[in-house]
Amino acid sequence: MSDIIYTKVDEAPELASASFLPIIQKFAAAAGVSVGTKDISLAGRILATFPDYLTEAQRQPDDLAELGQLVKTADANVIKLPNISASVPQLVAAIKELQAQGYALPDYPETPATDEEKAVRAKYDGIKGSAVNPVLREGNSDRRAAKAVKNFAQKNPHRMGDWSADSKTRVACMTSGDFRSNEVSATLANAATAKIVLETAGGQTVLKEGISYPAGTVVDATFMSAAALGRFLAEEIEKTKAEGTLFSLHLKATMMKVSDPIIFGHAVKAYLAPVIEKHGAALADLGVTPNSGLGDLLAKVQDNAAIMADIEACMAARPSLYMVDSDKGITNLHVPSDVIVDASMPALIRAGGKGWGPDGKESDANCVIPDSSYASIYDEAIRFFKENGKLNPATAGTVQNIGLMAQKAEEYGSHPTTFEIAEAGTVKMILDDGTVLHSHDVQAGDIWRSASTRKAPIEDWVNLAIDRQKAEGIRAIFWLDASRAHDAELIAYVKPILDAKGLSDTFEIMAPREATRASLETITKGENTIAITGNVLRDYLTDLFPILELATSAKMLSIVKLMNGGGLFETGAGGSAPKHVQQLMEQNHLRWDSLGEFCALGESLTFLADAKGNEKARVLGRAVDAATQGILDNDRSPSRKVGEPDNRDSHYWFARYWAEALAAQTDDAGLASHFAPIAAALAENEQQILSELAAAQGDAADLGGYYHTDAGKTGAVMRPSETLNALIG
User: Fold this and answer.
1) Residue 576 reports pLDDT greater than 90
2) What is the CA radius of gyration of the chain?
């Protein structure tokens, strides 16, 4: 196993890797550090899952499974880039691309009938959604803005939209019948095995069995009423029309890969209710699946003039939709993975509560977040900015985050135990001793789920928070709501640990709404705070606050201290940026910012030095920090516009600053001697290298694919400077 594993992923970060990874490997080799790769991309996971359908030459190992074992050891040192958490449309598109490339993969069965189709569907369902993070995250999260990044943001404040006290933008969520209101939770005194059953008038159906829980596990169960959801959506569509705002739906159909696509489908059906009521049978015959979105529906009915006319009439009568791309007519309801709540809501809040409408203009919006579990953080943020005006990035403090996510903690690990109920009855979670742990009466179409959080990750999370607060000496808040069933169980863990260590007065415990306001008040004063949160709030807040503070969440320092001693270094949030790929393919300009990769690399090298005693790696890590500072101080980050410096330019400058820092340092004479001529050559050839990089821009770029690119073609696109390549190798 290599000293450092650099993950192969998808879309923009993977394209950037084609340029940046050779630089990393060249520099690391001088310190005796090997940097290898493991493929956790969507295409790679598909190919690894279906070896029996492929030729020997086409098969590839299950790298995700290998990494899943590695992160449970003290030897793990993994730099994890953002990967696609695939929605069904993305999964289907990737399969079709691979099939066109000669891989004889089976189709994704939308409605499996045979045992073989059901088996294929089960394998594909294991790939979609958040299939990667729960496997790799064997530790809790420490996310914060690196000091250099925060300083740069304060010295160079980004544009913020103006907030008006009379803004019509608001958050709408269910007040009953949702996951939050139906949640029950219990902590298991002893280890147990459970099964989930649906009892109906016709008998008992086992939904899931053999679920193993160690002692001390917090086990939740809840459901969302389909009827209540339908009423809520219908009411909000009417209210939005009356208010004259944009209808915007905010879900996470990628991470919550079972529940949220279903909720998304309900929204599509509610918005097109007159059309579906009139043409339901014809739509079914055409294979329309509302869960796949309006885009898929329109593609399947485009040749049916009657249905298309009714759709146009319906949309004209409905409130305007929040747009993903108004120029191309792509709406909020087109694809379930296009609007992801933790990115879309902060962007809207940063813009002063404005979203883009179909007319290409900004408008106020009704932000529909059906489940009320976490909607309050966005509602409270909007209320705060209406009252106080926009945040000033030049003076704002920062919100760090300690997140409970190890071992599939909380809702993000609930996919295998989430079900759309087929018929009315009672769902029961039954322990192996016959105890009914949880029970809910449900109706057909309801979405029932169970999630769990283990004792060891909870205790590790609390202790990680204690360590971080001690290191920072700042305000620290546990975002836990005593009136919510799950949070009450966590509070029962948190308080005794704090009491035993005499720290009860050092930490605060607040419900998310109150914690949101307290945190915004704190950073508005220029002070800092630590948000200590569960898994979903970790995800949401490490987009919300960085987008307000830094303009992006991709620049976050993200360290996962693995529970068995290893390290996982995530390259910030920010997704895999499909729009960046589209621009590259059309204009050969990649605006992806690799600052997250730079920060993760420095931490990984320092961790390697601490773990293995490789002092040369420590010198490399310090020089990475200096190079990162150089990128920021000299404004060498990518521009958004074609013809201006892009991701590849930033990699040249990073390599140059890194080499110069290594040549100038005095801790290791051998490294200084090795890198001095490299630094000199990079400087001497500056104009030639930059001109070669600039000359590559403007024309369309052929990557040989989207989900499964051709390595040779991608390398040629991302490494167009022969001069730089000769120096790096």
Assistant:
1) no
2) 26
Contact, 216 vs 190, CB < 8 A?
no
Q: Of the candidates 409, 397, 255, 345, which has an alpha carbon nearest to the alpha carbon of residue 541?
A: 345
Q: Percentage of residues in the chain with pLDDT exceeding 70?
A: 99
Pairwise CA distance, residues 724 & 729, whole Å: 8
Q: Where are the alpha helices (DSSP H) in 578-721?
A: 578-587, 595-612, 615-633, 647-664, 669-684, 686-695, 711-718
pLDDT tens for residues 188-234? 999 999 999 999 999 999 999 999 999 999 999 999 999 999 999 99
Q: pLDDT, tens digit, for every residue of 463-517?
A: 999 999 999 999 999 999 999 999 999 999 999 999 999 999 999 999 999 999 9
- Using CA atoms, how far residue 637 sits from 399, 474, 634, in Å, is 23, 31, 9
At 87 the pLDDT is 83
Which tokens in the block code for residue 152?
């740069």
When pLDDT is averaged across residues 132-149 and rounded to a whole number, the result is 90
For residue 212, the cross-strand partners are 193
Residue 82 contacts residue 13 (beta carbons within 8 Å): yes
β pairing state of 330-331 and 354-356: unpaired
Which residue, 254, 111, 195, is CA-closest to 427? Answer: 195
Look at residue 529 in the predicted model and tell me its pLDDT: 98
How many other CB atoms sit within 10 Å of the CB of residue 108? 21
In sequence order, which residues have a C-beta less than 8 Å from that of residue 222 and are 6 or more positions away? 179, 180, 182, 183, 184, 440, 448, 449, 450
pLDDT at 572 over 70: no
CA neighbor of 534 nearest in space, from 575, 485, 498, 475: 485
Model pLDDT, residue 584: 97
**Rounded to whole angstroms, what are the CA distances from 420 to 12, 415, 427?**
34, 11, 11
What are 47-61's pLDDT values in tens digits?
A: 999 999 999 999 999
Q: What's the average model confidence in pLDDT over 683-711?
A: 97
Longest dimension (CA), the chain: 81
Task: Write the CA distances from 169 to 16, 260, 377, 403, integer angstroms.
Answer: 37, 23, 15, 29
Q: Are 258 and 208 in contact (CB under 8 A)?
A: no
| The two three-digit tokens of residue 335, written as one number | 């694809």
How far apart CA 512 and CA 579 sit, in angstroms, is 32
| Global model pTM greater than 0.90 | no
Q: Mapping DSSP to helix (H, G, I), strand (E, B) and coil, where does residue 400 land?
A: strand
- What is the secondary structure of 175-209 as a DSSP string? SSSSHHHH-EEEE-SS-EEEEEEEEETTEEEEEEE
Query: How far apart (Å, rounded) are the C-alpha atoms in residues 679 and 674?
Result: 9
Only one residue has tokens 């020089």, namely 623
In 81-169, beta strands by DSSP E: 139-145
pLDDT of residue 574: 59
At residue 488, the pLDDT reads 98
Q: What's at 556, amino acid-wise?
A: M
Q: Are the C-beta atoms of residues 200 and 424 closer than 8 Å to each other?
A: yes
CA distance 371 to 376: 10
Task: Write down the residue that tokens 């880039």 correspond to.
Answer: 81
Placement of tokens 């990737």 in the chain: 94
Q: CA 417 from chain center: how many Å?
A: 21
What are 235's two structure tokens? Answer: 């009411």
Residue 557 scores a pLDDT above 90: no
C-alpha span between 593 and 16 (Å, rounded): 9
**Confidence check: pLDDT of 573 > 80:** no
Which tokens in the block code for residue 197? 């059953």
575 pLDDT more than 70 = no
**Residues 6+ away with beta carbon under 8 Å from 313:** none
Contacts of 85 (CB under 8 A, 6+ apart): 128, 129, 130, 131, 132, 133, 254, 255, 257, 337
Nearest partner of 40 among 23, 17, 24, judged by Cα: 17
Cβ within 8 Å of residue 278, ≥6 positions away: 310
Model confidence pLDDT, tens digit, residues 278-309: 999 999 999 999 999 999 999 999 999 999 99
Cα separations (Å) of 379 from 247, 369, 383?
A: 16, 10, 6
